[in-house]
């Protein structure tokens, strides 16, 4: 049965338990960081940090808000990263039939152009290991899920922000919570829910949380995201409002 995450950012306290649990389960090394005036640590995702709680201070309705966004791969239903990788090395990125997990295999190290899948991602997720050349990102904790357990980040979340289950069940939960939250926060949305398996509920404009909170096609460069998406996928949009 296809799976999905529902991430209710309205409940997140930024404790970062999910971030630590992800590192611990994958035996990923710590990332050296320095204080740059924010509690966000490290500053970005990297090849050994698949989950990052992003912190954003923004003024909304003349009040300062601290917005938290537990960033990770969205496990797209038609993943642009895979469509680009398939043109280079077949089997480098696969989709697990049972869960819908988009899984990066060791063959990603054989990609002649690893920047292709990286730049095709509308959520700015994949990162390259400079030592092995492998691409890395959230693997849905497939080993846990295949053994009847929840992903590590969901298991440890103490607030109910992180939810995981059958796709339809998570979509229903997202719609129900959105209806509740909209009573007091009319601008609330769930980002891009028909295109992936990781639904974020946000009380305010997604752009206030993070520039890639919802799909972006605006990053220029040798592998311009807009042209990639035009070639390999359908346009993304916010559907639950
Ligand atoms: S564990 Fe839950 S509450 Fe803590 S930062 Fe992660 S999503 Fe937020
Ligand atoms: S979010 Fe990015 S890395 Fe994850 S499946 Fe979609 S395109 Fe690939
Ligand atoms: S599902 Fe697993 S790999 Fe993905 S962010 Fe959560 S703990 Fe990390």
TrEMBL record:
GO molecular function terms attached to this record: 4 iron, 4 sulfur cluster binding; metal ion binding
Cellular component GO terms, alphabetical: cell envelope
Alphabetically ordered keywords of this record: 4Fe-4S, Iron, Iron-sulfur, Metal-binding, Repeat
Matches recorded under Pfam families: Fer4_11
SUPFAM superfamilies in UniProt: 4Fe-4S ferredoxins
PROSITE patterns, per database record: 4FE4S_FER_2
Protein name, as recorded: Formate dehydrogenase
